[in-house]
Every structure is written in structure tokens, then in C-alpha cells.
Amino acid sequence: MGIRCVAVYESYQLKQFTDLGLAEPILRAIKTEGYTAPTPIQAQAIPIMMSGKDMVGIAQTGTGKTAAFVLPLLHRISELRDRPIANHCVALILAPTRELASQIADSIRTYGSAMRVSVAIVVGGVKPGGQIRMMARGVDVVVATPGRLLDHVQTGVIKLDRTETVVLDEGDQMLDLGFMPTIRKIMAKLPKKRQTVLFSATMPQQIRSLADDFLNQPSEIAVTPTSKPIELIN
Ligand code: AMP
Questions:
Q1: What is the tens place of the pLDDT at every residue in 29-45?
Q2: Cα of 56 to ligand 1 centre, how many Å?
Q3: Which of 53, 174, 204, 224 has a CA between 20 and 30 Å from the CA of residue 82?
């Protein structure tokens, strides 16, 4: 078992960004960032997300998990011919805090710097006017905290009926902050046919049941210290 895991780990290490089928402007932006190879979570997550399957990723900050979901989302957006539709978004990313939402939006702009992509940050603690104006045009990606997003969904400023992919980032933190009831209300507004991706550093029972209720036969991937070859050898 241990030896098999080492072999799988090494095959992730060998993979290059160019093996993943990402659009050329994305590869160019990654190169500009100086990334030489995908991290283990990226090598696992990107092919699954590009296949359209649901996914649960157990990974902490610092593993490269933001690019693991942002790069395949950008690839999908690069394939779209049409401009965004008013009040709609193709992809929705939910994050527990304003700071994380803004970091994710920065990553989208960085990795999407060589292509056309529009992003709206929809978070609490700021006046809603700018968010309303941005959504009036429609955007490719909404990065949101749950409370403010639900406010806009309830007033019709944001419509989720055409959203193809939803990413829940830092699921366990969103649980700790009491967002589960809000997240469940948001999930109910999304189309039944969609891709749902959940990242969490840990898997408490309530996150497990969120996955059971809203994800469809997800692939599960994990990047934990136990997958490091040296520890398996020990
Ligand atoms: P994250 O876990 O998403 O917070 O990412 C942690 C850090 O790793 C960020 O500063 C990224 O810029 C960086 N990073 C992400 N992917 C790669 C990669 N493939 N190679 C080098 N650095 C990366």
C-alpha cells in the first residue's frame, strides 16, 4: 500500500502544466508567475475539474489549492464564446472571509492576465452599490462570502440559474463561522445540473453531510502530510 502511494505521488511530481490541457493564455500566465510544475493538489484536482466531475479536496492553505480550482475555471471561461449575461455568473466561488475572497479574486486576475475574464467580489462590510453595478453587466466569476451573496440572490441582483460550477473554499472555516444554513439556501438556488467542488482542511461530520447532500458522486482527493514519501517510508 505504502509503495503504491509513493509511486502515485511521484507520477504527480512528474506531471507538467503542459500535460494538463490548459488553454495557452493560462499556461503563459503561469510561466510568468515562475511556476515550474503543478503542486500535488493541482496535479490531482485540475484533470478532475476539467472532466466536469464533482470533487472533494482535503487540503490546507499553502498547498496551491487556489490555483487548483482557479486554473480549470479559467480554462472553461476561455472556451466561452458569449459575453456574460446580465446578473448572472458562469462560476461561483464561496469563501469564509472578505480577505480570502479578495485573495482568490487576485489569483483569478493573475492567472487570467493573458485572457478576457471578469470577476465580481461580493462581500459584506462594503456598500452594495458597486456590486449591483458590476452584476448588472454580468460576470464570468463571482467570488463571494455567503451572507452578502444570499442578500443579492434574494433581491434578484444575482441570479444563479445559469451557474455551471460552484466552488466552496475552506468549508470547515465556513462551518465554524456559522455559514452552513446560508450555504444550504444558496445551493438550493443553483441549477441541479452543475459541477460542485468542495475544499476543506478537515472533514467534520457537518461538512461530510454537506457533501452528501449537494455533491454528485464526487472524486475525493487529499493532500496531507501522510502522503509525503519520506513519511510513508518511515
Ligand atoms: P494557496 O495554497 O493557494 O494559498 O497557495 C500558496 C502559494 O503557492 C501561493 O503564494 C501561490 O502563488 C503559490 N503557488 C501555487 N501554485 C504553485 C506552483 N505550481 N508552483 C509554485 N508556487 C505555486
A1: 999 999 999 999 999 99
A2: 19
A3: 53
